[in-house]
Design goal:
By secondary structure, this protein is of the alpha+beta class. The protein has two domains: 79 residues; 61 residues, no CATH class. The strands form two sheets. Strands 3-4-6-5 form a four-stranded antiparallel β-sheet. α3 links the parallel β1 and β2. α1 packs antiparallel against α2 and α1 crosses α3.
Amino acid sequence: MNRAAINRAARCALAVDVYESFMAETETLNELPLAMDLAYLLGAIVRGENVEWNEDQNEHALRILREVYTEAHQVWAHVVIAGAAPCGPDCPGWAVFNEGEGDPDDLGDVQACDECGRYTDDEAADLARAAGYTVEWDEDGSGYYVTAKPAEVAR
């Protein structure tokens, strides 16, 4: 199977998972806004696109997604929440900082983005892991730190 077919199959599997999650979380899809949100989301997933939602108009669908999926889940690659990232559209919601401050072996610390405030530090660590970083909790309780960057993990 070629790469495009694999990607398409993965998107279809995600769409089925999202549909089943919505059905498990609701008694009916007769509520028009929810049914429309689901239809648009499933179409976006299958086509490899995204929907742009806002907290007010898409409240019910967003509540279901947040209850079922972590912030690092692939479904969120297909949902853009209007106004969710005041620090910029490319903000992943987390950052590695203090890289190598006086120590070449210091790969940095991980924390949630201070500007957008969308995630907790725990969620930021999960997002960093999803991006390929190896992240661990510091024994002194001061926060998360990077033990390997994505390129180093692949070696």
